[in-house]
Design goal:
By secondary structure, the chain is an alpha/beta fold. The protein folds into 3 domains: 131 residues, Rossmann fold (3-Layer(aba) Sandwich), CATH 3.40.50.2300; 172 residues, P-loop containing nucleotide triphosphate hydrolases (Rossmann fold), CATH 3.40.50.300; 125 residues, Helicase, Ruva Protein, domain 3. The protein is built from 19 helices and 16 strands. The strands form 5 sheets. A 5-stranded parallel beta sheet has the order 2-1-3-6-7, with helices on both faces. A 5-stranded parallel beta sheet has the order 9-10-13-8-14. β4 and β5 form a beta hairpin. α10 packs across α12 and α13 packs across α15. The protein is elongated, with a radius of gyration of 31 Å.
């Protein structure tokens, strides 16, 4: 185990002896005779563990630990004293010392103690590195695309990230709402605190209530012990409520109370709990229409939509498709231990002429499939699913064909209404029977 150790002691003979012992353990050792010299080393070098005498010419080691630990929180401090006393030991530990030991009698304890302190330092560094990697993964700089719609969304997200405002992310399925939510969290003042995501459409009303707010033992069949809800788990951080438009009406009132006061009651409990949580919600539904239909509370909508960001569908970001496709090709080539393929012009053009009802998620899946099935150095149109090849052929061969234009338009409206035939017929200003006939005729 390597690491940098600093010994601060005004007794040169003892300092040299400790340096030789510690050096035999493959540690790099620095020496200082005063607190000032010790601070100079901490300023200039990455010191992992400090062995420090309590009585020094220019100060007290116990107070030194407090000042140094505030400035260098990752570094661990072990205090050495010739005359141990309980009050000093208690204060040293309170000030952040790793341990407080006697000189001479405890020399055999120093090496094992150093190894334990070094393990703690290395664990802390590893956690910091993982947190940094996570922050980099979900930073606004990693959101790919230079088109105007996506850059406008990123600009808004950057501005709201620095606040604690509730955010409502709107957009079709697969447009990257969770990536935006995580990026807003990681770039705000709650970074480092919990980020908890839940899909409101994935649970029944009873299960969702228990997941969000927790329950007491005996609250329902199978509730054999108390359970923390996700709002408790996210305390101090952010909770992301995906598909908020699917939340049952009965739970909307409880969520409204959390937004208004930070308070809620567990299932089966009578005691009120209070949390400090930022809420980011997302939906692919038109909440105004849901309000008109009586399925969503207007007061909850106004609380959630303090700051709205609409994420553009992929069909409105055509110029971003090549860079997204190349990025995903690189990612999946690395995962499958293949060389990064060249994406041929016809392959990219086919992607750009597709309607993308599943947006970025669908694009990502198609690129992954292409990379897995491809054994060559390039990706061509033959690597695409049949439906993309067919649509591309239709696009190039029937660009001016009236039936092809009508087919494409009906498909777009069906995507917009999420397959609602009655609404599609209304928007197209045609009869429902006519729509069904054209769906059958065009194999939509």
């Amino acid at each position: 185990m390597n690491g940098n150790i600093l010994i601060i002691d005004d007794e040169e003979q003892l300092r040299k002896l400790l340096a030789r012992i510690i050096g035999l353990e493959n540690f790099m050792v620095e020496e200082a005779g005063t607190i000032k010299a010790g601070f100079d080393y901490l300023e200039r070098k990455q010191i992992d563990v400090v062995l420090c005498d309590v009585k020094l010419p220019d100060g007290n080691g116990v107070e030194f630990v407090k000042a140094a630990k505030n400035k260098y929180p990752v570094t661990e401090f072990i205090l050495l004293t010739a005359y141990a006393n309980i009050p000093d030991g208690v204060l040293a530990m309170k000030n952040g010392a790793f341990d407080y030991i006697m000189k001479g009698d405890d020399n055999d304890k120093i090496v094992p103690l150093l190894h334990r302190a070094m393990e703690k330092v290395q664990l802390h560094k590893k956690v910091e590195q993982l947190q940094k990697q996570l922050s980099n993964k979900f930073s606004f700089d990693t959101i790919i695309g230079n088109s105007v719609p996506i850059q406008e969304a990123v600009t808004l997200a950057r501005k709201v990230a620095a606040t604690d405002a509730t955010v409502l992310l709107l957009g079709e399925t697969g447009t990257g709402k969770e990536v935006f939510a995580q990026s807003i969290h990681n770039n705000g003042n709650r970074n480092g605190k919990p980020f908890v995501a839940v899909n409101c459409s994935a649970f029944s009303k009873e299960l969702l209530e228990s997941e969000l707010f927790g329950h007491k033992a005996g609250a329902f069949t199978g509730a054999i012990k108390d359970k923390k809800g996700l709002f408790e788990e996210a305390n101090g951080g952010t909770i992301f409520l995906d598909e908020i438009g699917e939340m049952p009406a009965e739970l909307q009132a409880k969520l409204l109370r959390v937004l208004e006061s930070g308070e809620f009651i567990k299932v089966g409990d009578t005691k009120t709990l209070k949390v400090n949580v930022r809420i980011i919600a997302a939906t692919n539904r038109d909440l105004q229409k849901e309000i008109e239909a009586g399925r969503f509370r207007s007061d909850l909508f106004y609380r959630l939509s303090v700051f709205q960001i609409t994420l553009p569908p992929l069909r409105e970001r055509i110029k971003d498709i090549p860079v997204l496709a190349n990025h995903f090709a690189s990612v999946f080539a690395a995962k499958t231990n293949k060389s990064v393929p060249v994406l041929q012009k016809e392959y990219l053009e086919a992607l750009q002429h597709y309607n993308w009802p599943g947006n970025i998620r669908e694009l990502k899946n198609i690129i992954e499939r292409s990379v897995i099935l491809n054994d060559e150095s390039q990706l061509s149109a033959k690597n695409l699913p049949v439906e993309l090849q067919t649509e591309t052929d239709n696009h190039f061969s029937s660009a001016f064909d009236l039936a092809a234009v009508e087919k494409q338009h009906i498909r777009k409206v069906l995507v917009y209404t999420k397959g609602n035939k009655t609404e599609t017929a209304r928007l197209l200003n045609i009869g429902l029977t006519t729509l069904y006939r054209k769906i059958e005729e065009y194999h939509l």
